[in-house]
Specification:
Layout lengths: L3 H24 L8 H7 L10 H4 L13 H5 L2
Amino acid sequence: MESLYLLVPLSVLLVFAIGILFWWSLRHGQFDDLEGPAYRLLLDDKDELPVDSSRQSGENTPSPKIGASQDDRGNQ
């Protein structure tokens, strides 16, 4: 029974501390975007393909065959 005199005030203080931390996190935008960081992990900037300048200018050049060597590309 004597331990309750210590545990009840400690639990009340703990609830207030958690409430204050939660309020602080809401005020500072910690819960604004829950899904964005998860998608940023999956999308790596290195995976983006380089833009081919000949395709932007409207030239109609055929793309090289996959797995073709340099000699095969010149003979197309």
